[in-house]
Amino acid sequence: MTTPESAPDQPAQPTPPQPGGSQPAGGWGEPPRYGQYAPGYDPAAPPAPEQSQHGTPPGVPAAGQYGQSQYGQYAPFSPQVPGYRPPADKPGIVPLRPLTLGELYDGAFGAVRHNPGVTLGLTAIVVVGAVVLGTLISIPLTTLFTDLFASVFTQLEVDPATEDLGFTQDLLGVTYGSALGTGLLLTLATPLAMGIMAISVSDSVIGRKVSVSDAWRRAAKRWWFLIGFSLLSFVAVLVAYALAIAIVAGLFAVDTTLGVIGIFVVLIALVVGGVWAVTRVALIPPALAVEGGGFWATCQRAWKLTRGTFWRVLGIYLLTSIILSVIGQIVAVPVGIVMGVAMTAANDVGVAVSLGLTYIITGGMSVLFLGGVMALLYIDTRMRREGLDVQLQAAAAAAADK
């Protein structure tokens, strides 16, 4: 049996327990590896109370024993409870690590509380301004379309079965008038409001509160990118529907049965393709608002972010949309009653105002909640795939020093 002084130079290895509990004197050897016992540790019996070469008094564990870390060395691994997560920095509305669903939703509300001047004030000005201006435009358009459909239905009323079409012509007039007036302006304003929300959320994540003027300036610089993406999405939808109609019409020209089958196949393809496309482009709007790159480069980056996270993005987007839809239906009930009364009284102004209120409610909720969730989901996906949390921690530290 050799002593540490006479042993040849070689890597220190754990020494098996000796009979009677006597062990070689403890030295500054290699720390125990995970899953191995330290030198001098006998799992069946406690170590004997004997003096070590370094003068450790009896009853005190010698350096290098299992469960003790030596100076300049790491302590042994301590397993945690399953599901345990080490604490993460939280300089802002969410912790800087991959987020759970609850943290995404809580962060969306936290963004509103953290900076209400931008999330509530500025976005409301954009949405309400677009709706008010659109309502003023839609009132004469509603009257124009109502008269147009009335002239068409007048020729159809020779048939007694069409005597009740007066309500239908009013409904069509309101639909087309509000779509061209309020709907069009809201389509142009919503990307700007979404961009403002994404900018505010991205700053709130690191604990920084962006000012109203700064948020407007940064969002206005990216507004054309956001509108361009919305217009491209609209064109893509039109092309998809036109292609579907052409396919169904061609199948009907060949055979009626084949055309009927084609309707179901095309509808399924539209639904599946629409869900896939919406999910893949879901992170593009917040990326366009927050990042400073070019249009196509940013779109490509955001498109690639959903690879490997497709089902997570889809599930969160669908769940959030369903929640908004349910809330919107509940809120829209009293507005719908007012609109019905206005239509019965043939009051175009009342109908336009009622629709405007509906647009404000649904558009405001969409910007605040859906915009906040998607902005946080974009940041969460980048933390998972690109390690953005490290950059955010550095940015938070820099913001705290100012």
Automatic annotation (TrEMBL):
Keywords from the UniProt entry: Membrane, Transmembrane, Transmembrane helix
Annotated spans, Disordered: 1-90
Ranges annotated as spanning the membrane: 118-139, 179-202, 223-252, 258-278, 314-337, 357-379
Compositionally biased tracts (Low complexity): 62-75
Keyword Ubl conjugation included in the entry's annotation: no
Name assigned to this protein: Glycerophosphoryl diester phosphodiesterase family protein
Annotated source species: Promicromonospora soli
